[in-house]
């Protein structure tokens, strides 16, 4: 009896969307030493773990104020993605978008600077804006 096997092709690579943004901070030597001491005593797995925890704790402390500001400024909380098809629909409707995002605003790579200019009136992002350098340059005077 002969065995045969069917080999499946490897899955296609998926485009990876970053779920975080890298920041740089400067800390005093004493603060950094205290963080290292807590890491050394296994309170935190590393410096990044400590800093993320500290940030989350401060965001929780100010959680109610954040909710009120998000509601007042009518911000989208999280991820807002705009494809070329989305913006084409906006253009067909004769409208312009005022984009307000707390998190990540993403404009697809197939969006041309011309389409972005015709459909996006303003962009306010508290977080990060991912778009091609051409689209960012075209919208530079509309990004707040």
Automatic annotation (TrEMBL):
Pfam families: RHH_8. It comes from Rhodoferax sediminis. GO terms for biological process: regulation of DNA-templated transcription. Gene3D superfamilies: Met repressor-like. SUPFAM superfamilies: Ribbon-helix-helix. This is CopG family transcriptional regulator. The lineage of its organism: Bacteria, Pseudomonadati, Pseudomonadota, Betaproteobacteria, Burkholderiales.
